[in-house]
Amino acid sequence: MKKIILTLGLILSIMAHAETKMIKVDGSSTVYPITEAMAEEFQNANKGVAKVTAGISGTGGGFKKFCRGEIDISDASRPITESEMKICADAKIKYMELPIAFDAMVIVVNPKNSMTEISIADLKKMWAPEAQGKVMKWSDVNPKWPNIALKLYGAGADSGTFDYFTEAIVGKAKSSRGDFTASEDDNILVKGVAGDKGALGFIPLAYYMENKKTLKALAVINKSGKSILPTKETVENASYNPLSRPLFIYVNAESAKKSEVQDFVKMYITTAKTIAPAVKYVALPAKAYDTTLAHFNKGKLGTVFKGKSEIGMTIEELLKKEATF
Question: Which domains does the chain have, with CATH numbers?
Answer without folding.
Answer: 2-102+247-315 (3.40.190.10), 104-236 (3.40.190.10)
